[in-house]
Amino acid sequence: VYRALLLIFHHFDTEFGHDELLIGESIDDVSNYNSKLFRFSGWKVPEPCYIPLRDERSQRPIWMQFLSDQTTTGSGFTLDYVFLVNQCK
Question: What pLDDT, on the 0 to 100 scale, is given for residue 30?
Answer without folding.
Answer: 66
